[in-house]
Design goal:
The strands form 5 sheets. Strands 1, 2, 3, 4, 5, 6, 7, 11, 12, 15 and 18 form an 11-stranded mixed β-sheet that branches. Strands 8-14 form a two-stranded parallel ribbon. It has a two-stranded parallel sheet with strand order 9-19. The protein has 2 domains: about 1-60; about 75-275, Fumarylacetoacetate hydrolase, domain 2, CATH 3.90.850.10. The radius of gyration is 18 Å and the shape is globular. About 45% of the residues are buried. The longest helix is centred in the C-terminal third of the chain and has 9 residues, at about 225-235. By secondary structure, it is α+β, with helices and mostly antiparallel strands. It contains 6 helices and 19 strands.
């Protein structure tokens, strides 16, 4: 099932997207429930609310599936082999010089305030960073947690563009500031329940201004989704509605010589316009 959080007639709603993508059947949810986007469905423990008559998607405004993340978005770094090597040779890697590919998952997070919807502008400030780029990432939405049966507690999937200020990432060693600038987490228009896709054979792609930059399969993760969930849940209590990004393929801007950074006017993987701040 493909679902989306939208604004319809000035109110936030959640609905099921038709197979052809042209219409959405809004769920009969209380306004207070719908404010949390697809989290309203997760919290119903599999009992789906009734759907109303479909309306054209064109009559709605797409929002992020989870408009306001309840807490920080968990992220995994260097989780595809080729990207791990390109990052190690980029000059921005502050990790161990002994091995490009980590022995254990590298975890960081993005602040909830960085989340924006597909189609919203990503505003970058050249006075703050001159090395901003994007990373396509498959993202897991947790519906419950039990490390021994990780996939049983995955509610579904979406995708994000992990916009990153590389110079800030290198300057501060820790990745928080470079990853968590406002608007640095554009999120896909849709999310899907876990039965909708074969996660071992799901392509991940990123195009910048119609140029294909990243293209790989999620089945090639260094650390797979159960391992990521197991790592996080060993001492951290994961909650239903937590969001975890799984890593990005090779082809990011710093992998080119010279690097290819985002500039004002560009269009990112989730069709987010890149705008440079002028004041």
């Amino acid at each position: 099932m493909k679902v989306a959080t939208v604004s319809a007639a000035g109110e936030r709603c959640v609905g099921q997207i038709a197979k052809d993508g042209t219409s959405i059947a809004l769920f009969d949810l209380a306004l207070s429930e719908a404010q949390d986007g697809v989290l309203a469905l997760i919290r119903r423990n599999g009992v789906m609310p009734p759907a109303l008559s479909p309306i054209p998607v064109s009559q709605t405004t797409i929002e992020a599936p989870i408009p306001v993340a309840r807490r920080n978005i968990f992220c995994v770094g260097k989780n595809y082999y080729e990207h791990a090597h390109e990052f190690a040779h980029s000059g921005f890697d502050t990790g161990s010089a002994n091995s490009a590919v980590p022995d254990n998952p590298i975890m960081f997070f993005k602040m909830p305030e960085s989340v924006i919807a597909c189609g919203s502008a990503v505003v970058i400030d050249p006075k703050v960073s001159k090395a901003v780029e994007s990373e396509a990432k498959l993202t897991v939405i947790i519906g419950g947690i039990d490390a021994k049966n990780a996939f049983d507690h995955v509610w579904g999937y979406t995708s994000i563009s992990d916009v990153t200020a590389r110079d800030l990432q290198a300057r501060y060693s820790q990745w928080l500031i470079g990853k968590s600038q406002d608007m640095f987490c554009p999120t896909s228009a849709f999310s899907v329940t876990r039965d909708e896709i074969d996660i071992s054979n799901t392509p991940i792609k990123c195009c910048i201004n119609r140029e294909l930059r990243q293209s790989l399969n999620a089945g090639l993760l260094v650390f797979d989704i159960p391992k990521i969930i197991e790592t996080l849940s060993a001492g951290i209590t994961l909650q239903p509605d937590d969001v975890i990004t799984t890593g990005t393929p090779a082809g990011v801007g710093i992998g080119f010589d010279p690097p290819k950074y985002l500039k004002g006017g560009g269009i990112g993987v989730l069709e987010n316009e890149i705008v440079e701040r002028t004041t």
